[in-house]
Every structure is written in structure tokens, then in C-alpha cells.
Amino acid sequence: MIRHFFKLAWNRRRANGFILAELLLCFLTLGAVLTIACFFLHNWRQPLGFEYRNVWRLDLSGGNRFEDSDDGQKAQGWARVDQILRLLRSRDEIESVSPLYFNVPFGASSMLTANLVGGTQRRVLDNRVGPEAREVLGLRLVAGRWLEPGDEALAFRPVVLTRNYARALYGDGDPIGKTLVVRNEDGKIDKEEERRVVGVVEAWRQYGELSHAPLAQFSLPAWGPPHLPPGNFVLKIRPGVSPAFEEDLVRAVRRIAPDWTVSVSSLARHRDRLLRDRLLPLLIMATVAGFLILMVGLGLTGVLWQSITRRTQEIGLRRALGATPGQIRWQILGELLALAALAAGAGSLIILQAPLLGIFDEVPLQVYLFALTLAALSLSLLVVGCGLYPSWLATRIRPAHALQYE
Amino acid sequence: MLLNYLKIAFKVLLRRKFFTAISLFGIGFTLTAILVVTALADYALAPLPPEVNLDRTLQIWWMVVRQTSNGQTREIAGSAGYAFLDRYARDLPGVEKMSIASDPFAATRYVDGRTETWTMRTTDGPYWEILRFDFLEGGAFTEEDERNGNRVAVISEAARRAFFGDRPALGGSVELDGQRYRVAGVVRNVDLLRAAAAADIWAPHSTRKSQDFRRFHFASEFSALLLARSRADFPLIKTAFRSRLELAKSQESFEKLLGTPETRLEQFASATRRTDTAEPPTRMLIGQSIGALLLFMLLPTLNLVSINMSRILERSSEIGVRKAFGASAGHLVGQFILENIFLCLVGGVLALGGTALVLHGIAQSGLVPHLDVHLNYRVFLIALGVACFFGVLSGALPAWQMSRLHPVRALKGGAR
Q1: Confidence bin at A65 (pLDDT 50/70/90)
Q2: B113 vs A243: CB contact, 8 Å cut-off?
Q3: What per-residue confidence (pLDDT) applies to A80?
Q4: What is the distance between the alpha carbons of residues B38 and B196, in angstroms, rounded to a whole number?
Q5: Are A83 and A234 spatial neighbours (Cβ–Cβ below 8 Å)?
Q6: DSSP 8-state symbol, A156
Q7: How confident is the model at residue A63 (pLDDT cuts 50, 70, 90)?
Q8: Is residue B121's pLDDT more than 70?
Q9: Complex ipTM
Q10: Which pLDDT band holds residue A176 (cuts at 50, 70, 90)?
Q11: Is B29 at the interface with chain A, CB within 8 A?
């Protein structure tokens, strides 16, 4: 039966060639949009790794925080940072505070390091945080311990990894106590002080809920001159603190550092902006794709309608030989579904080149498979929808009338 | 003859209204999508106020630097710094006026415990001569204000509404990031696509809290605007700047120094791919845009072709008669393509309406603040061109198919 449909489709290959090409392009469009949507959905369901509600960020920028500032300026910078930290810790509205270097949740700028993982050079977020960061951001420890005050005195430098980084490095083995070996591109070991894994946290999705989970590591920053003082802080705010506290805080910090630019904002606000920035392009794409598919659907209906009126004799003959209206309708729809299946098959082969060649390697294979299945289903629905009216017309053909035609 | 063809085309279009409607929907939607993108691109590249001199303006905004200091090699790619532009981009030959302006940054103020974020820029005096803002009140600040560190600012209409209600702002003052500025002028709102101008508050560089920016060569978010005497001087300016880079390399121990004054189109091109070459990949950008356009048109074209194919078969008896009476294949092809172009032009008119609606919707949505793009004659001409191109593209194959129809068969009803 199914082979018969393909044969019928092949017999009218010239007319069907165009329909097939259209369906293929439709499938590619559907596949691309649905893959992105499914990828977002897949990411949305993964743990974020940190808590953003009631967390604010405080950012400082100004001349003597830059790397090319001289020692005197650095010393002044550090003195101010200490003073600001004391101020933040003294306020009742703030539960806890941690300094950060660049890598703030939902933030755009990031400090990265690279490591050779599984044969490829991967970028790793290099989070320099205070021991309080776990409390401020509600980081969930899944193994080992977190960074503690006094860790600086150890003979090695303790590091905490995210679960995905630990798994990438050590597979299913226990990462705790292992030495973190950093290799550069040509496989040589980067010689630095010894770093040892002391703990593993669930995740660090700095780029938000819709993005893939980056690899990340946490360690304590080198504190005091001649190093660079921190420019970002995260503050856990007691629930119910009025937004007016923000202004208060900014004024107090400005009094300490009058020539620095000081800004305070809630992580929730940055999250909203990031979500909008990610969803808007998808929304535009989906709208355009929707119109394209509507257009193809209408076109297909017209073409089918036309072809039914031209196949009157063929259908009349089948009716005369005893085919029921149901069988006629099934023949028309079956031919269409055969075409849709061909288009979906060819389209899937094209789209699956992306994971096979590793073009977007953050997107897991199952996302592609799920999205392509969805796309194939929607395409089938589309062709059946387009074929309903024309196939109904076909069932109305009266055999005597049709055969008289010649 | 032509009029006759059009008459026939019109009659045919009216005969099967459903087909005509779906064809027009397809054409209208396709052209609308293309026109919206074209109108936005045209708007971004056109010399519109306040960038009235965009045609002869170059901007230095992106540099790549490699430097070794204290045994550490650093490579920075990003905006330029004030010190570098001040030292090496001034007095280039062919340049009439030169301005250093900061990139937009966020400045906050607090109203009743709420945070309000405004986009701010610091600039110098010549900025206001290269860009011609539309002043509603007062005027620009001057190079004098920049030299003396006067706390003055120019604000946008939107900022005036927020700070002063609808009262005049001149002589009043605004407080941002804990600093007070006297309002020197109010300008009409500027949207993001007027890239060198967009902001809500403008103040002299010297009012910045920290004047350390004057020491930094790179990555401190400044760019230079160069107003050339004419477009013809662009190559001269670029060459001169390249030799300035060589000079800087020898004076300041940079190992690598890339960057070039760019037109707006070149800026878009180098933003799409930050290559290590000095020349922005403008050709590549244009090529890619045309490629994307053709790719987008592929599906609508196929759709229209298959609709046309089935329509032609319906008209086979007409074609049979014309062939029997001696019409040549070329004639028929010409007639059909003309009919199709006619259809596409009708679709193009619909698309102009659709584009106006979409642009209005974008302006209303506030997605890009203050953006208000309108149709103009350039977009209209492009619409005309694209519609004709689309008509030929989707009419050629069916027309050729039709012209090959055998008259006897065609007269019989044109099966296969």
C-alpha cells in the first residue's frame, strides 16, 4: 500500500517535484525554528545553579582600578575596597556580601580561561569569588566542600568545579582531591601553582536559563596589592527591604570613592533583559516562518485543487471500478503524506549534519531528534490540512460524468 | 498590444479569485519582509539628522592592540582610548573637523526610591559641529566648556519630560550619578540606529568624575569622528592614519596595532566579523546580504511557480487557440511573464502598505526607543525592482513550459 503511494507520486514526478521542493524548504524552516525553541526549552529545565531573587550587584569602575595603574593607586584602590566591604557588612539590610571579578550572573562580561578537555580547547569561566559567595548566591554543593577563609594558607590552591566541568575532566570518577591540570592548545601542561579540586557545585549558568551550561571553576581571588582589586560585588538583600535602599547604598559608597562610577542593580533586572534579548530574535524568526508556512499551505491547497480537477478521469475510473469515497480520499492524502515523508527524511539528513559535524556542539543530539520529530509531525498536519478540501472534492466526482468527459 | 496583455491579465486574475488571492498573499508577504529589512537598512545608512554629514564622516571605533609589558603579552580588541585618539588621530590630512566622543554609558538617578537609567555620552566641542542636532531649547556646549570643566549638559526631549515635566529646562539642572549639570540645551530624541549620536544626556569629557581616561590608550570606550572635506579624501585619510599607526608602534612599543577610520557601512561589516585584517569585509557583507535575500525568496518563488504552473494548464485552450493562429513561443513567454510582473506589482503595492504598517508597529512597540522609520522614494524604487525581479523569477519557468505545449493537445484540454 505504502509502496503504491510512492509509485503514484513518482508517476507524477514533474508536478510533484515542485511540491516536494516546497515541502523540503518548509521542513528546513520548521526544523530550524523548532530546534532553537527545543534547545531553549531543554536549557530552561536544567538547574540554574544559583539563586537570583533578592540578590543585587554592585559595580565599581574608575581609574585606579585598571591594570595599568601604578602601585600607589592600587594601594588606594584596595584601601577603598576594604572600606566598602566593611560598609556593606555593617548594613542590616544586607545579609551577606561577596566580591566577584567580572563573572556576575546574567552579566555580559566574563573572565575566561581555557583548558584542553577531551581533545578540544574549551573555554572555562574563571570565577574568583569570596568564601561568602556560596551563601549569597545559594550555590548548591553536590560533593566535597566549598572554599573557606584560611584556604590561602594551604600549600595548594583549592578549586571548586561545576558538575559538568568535573565530569568532562574526570568522567564518573570522584573528582575530590584530584589535581586540576590545565593544558593549553598543544597539550602542554600550563605550569602554575598546584590547584586541587575540593568541591563540586551543581551548575553555573551565567548566561541565563536559555543558554547552555558553560564550564566553570571557582577559586579565591589573590587579595591585596599588587593584585587587581575586585570591581563587582553580589549582595544578598534581606526580603522586604525597600527599593529606596539602593539609592542610600550608592550614596554611601560614593562618599568612600567620589571619583569612581558606582552602580547598583538587581540580578532579576539583568535576567529580564537577557531573557528578552534571547527570546525576541526567536519570536521574529517564528513569525516569519509562520507566514512562510501559511503561504505554502495556501499555495499547496490551490495546486491540489487544480490537480484534482485535472485527474477527474483517473478518479472516475477508480470510482467506476468500485473504490469507496474513503479510499479515494485516502489515496490523495496518502500521496501527500508520502511526499511529506520524503521531504522530512531529506530535510532531517540535512539538519542532522550540524550535530554530526559538531557545528553547534552545545546542542545535544536528543534536542535535534525531538525537534525534527516535531517538525515532521507538523509538516504532516500541514499537508493533511491542505489536502482535506481537495480530497473531499475528489470524492464528489461522479464516475458516469467523469468517464463521459473524453 | 501591451494594454491588451494587461487587459487579459486582469480578466484572468478576476476569473479565479482564490488563486489570485493566495498568489497576492504570498507576494505581498515576501515583499513586505524584504521591504521592512530594506527600509531599516536604508535608514541606518542614510545621512539623516543629526548625522547629516554621515556621507563624509569616518569613525575610528575598533582597534586591536598587542603589547608586552612586565613580561606579559596582552592582546586587546575593542574600542579605542582617549589618549591614543588624542595623540594620533588629530590633524589628519583631508579632515575638516575631528571630535572624540565616548560610547554611550548608563547613568542613573533615583526618583522616589525608583532607579532610572539614562544613556549618557561625554563629548567635546567639535562633536556639535560634525553632528547637527535639532535644538528645541538653548544650544550645544562648547570647546570652552570642555576646557574649563563646566558642569553643563545637553539633554534629549525624553529626558526633559522625565526631569522637568513639560516645562522648559533651560537654566535648570539635572542630577545624574550624584553629579549636577546645568542644562545648556534640549534636542529632539535620537534613536539607536543613529549610532554616533544616540544618547539622552551629553556632557563635556572634563565633567567626568575621574579624569584617568586621559591616560589610557585602549579599550576605554571612546571613538573619533572625522569629518572629511569630501568623500574623495577617504583613501587619503585612511592612508595617513595607517602611517600614524606605524608611528605609534615605534613610539609606544606596540607589537600589533590594527584599526582604520570607517564609514557606517564599513562599521556594520567589521561588526559582523572581527577579522584581523585592517580592511573591513564590506564586500562580504553585501554578498551575504544578497545571498540571504535569495535564500529567503526561494520558498516564495517555488510556491508561486507551482501555482502558476497549475494556472497555466487551466488556460491551455486559450494557449492552443493562440498557437493555432500562429503566435510564437516567444510571444507567449513574453505575455505570461508580463502578466506575472503585473501580478507582482499589485503585490508590491500591497507590500508597501504592509511595510508601512509594520514600521508603524515597530515605532509604537518602543522596542527601539524613539525609532521612527518611514518609507521613502529609495525604498519605493527598491520595492519596484524587487517586485519585477520576483515576477520574472517566478514567471519564467511556467512560461517556458507553456510555450512548449503542443497546440493540438492544448486545444483538447492540455493533459500532461
Answers
A1: very low
A2: yes
A3: 92
A4: 21
A5: no
A6: S
A7: low
A8: yes
A9: 0.84
A10: very high
A11: yes
Instruction: Encode pLDDT of A71-98 as tens digits.
Output: 777 888 899 999 999 999 999 999 999 9
Q: What are A214-239's pLDDT values in tens digits?
A: 999 999 998 887 788 888 999 999 99
* pTM of the predicted protein model: 0.86
Over residues B131-159, the mean pLDDT reads 95
Q: Which residues are bridge partners to A264 per DSSP?
A: A58
Per-residue confidence (pLDDT) for residue B171, from 0 to 100: 86
Which residues of chain B neighbour A260 with C-beta distances below 8 Å? Answer: 209-210
Tell me how far apart the terminal alpha carbons of chain B are, to the nearest angstrom: 30
CA distance B339 to B391: 9
Interface test with B, best of A247, A283, A311, A339 (most B CBs within 10 A): A247
Rounded Cα distance, A381 and B311, in Å: 26
CA dihedral (B226, B232, B236, B238) positive or negative: positive
Compute the average pLDDT of residues A193-197.
87
Check CB contact under 8 Å for B26 and A261: no
Any A CB within 8 A of B216 CB: yes
> Average of pLDDT values for A268-284?
92
CB contact at 8 A, A321 and B328: no
Q: Of A208, A121, A133, which is closest to residue A168 (Cα–Cα)?
A: A121
- pLDDT tens per residue, range B339-363: 899 999 999 999 999 999 999 999 9
Give CB contacts under 8 A, 24+ apart, made by B210-214: B210/A62, B210/A63, B210/A259, B210/A260, B210/A261, B211/A63, B212/A62, B212/A63, B212/A64, B212/A66, B212/A69, B213/A63, B213/B81, B213/B82, B213/B83, B214/B82, B214/B83, B214/B86
A263 Cβ under 8 Å from any chain B Cβ: yes
| Residue spans per domain, chain A | 2-46+279-403, 55-238
Q: pLDDT higher for B398 or A139?
A: A139
Among A18, A25, A251, whose Cβ lies nearest the Cβ of B309? Answer: A18
Nearest alpha carbon to residue B134 among B364, B379, B370: B370
pLDDT of B242 strictly over 70:
yes
SS (H, E, C) chain B: CHHHHHHHHHHHHHHCHHHHHHHHHHHHHHHHHHHHHHHHHHHHHCCCCCCCCHHHEEEECCEEEEEEECCEEEEEEECECHHHHHHHCCCCCCEEEEEEEECCEEEEEEECCEEEEEEEEEECCCHHHHCCCCEEEECCCCHHHHHHCCCEEEEEHHHHHHHHCCCCCCCCEEEECCEEEEEEEEECCCCCCCCCCCCCEEEEHHHCCCHHHHHCCECCCEEEEEEECCHHHHHHHHHHHHHHHHHHHHHHCEEEEECCCECHHHHHHHHHCCCCCCCCCHHHHHHHHHHHHHHHHHHHHHHHHHHHHHHHHHCHHHHHHHHHCCCCHHHHHHHHHHHHHHHHHHHHHHHHHHHHHHHHHHHHHCCCCCCCCCCCHHHHHHHHHHHHHHHHHHHHHHHHHHHCCCHHHHHHCCCC
- Residue A72 is placed in which grid cell? 600607589
Averaged pLDDT, B242-260: 88
Q: Name residue A88's amino acid.
A: L
Question: Which of A22, A265, A310 lies nearest to residue B299, judging by beta carbons?
Answer: A22
- How does residue B173 score in pLDDT terms, banded at 50, 70 and 90? very high
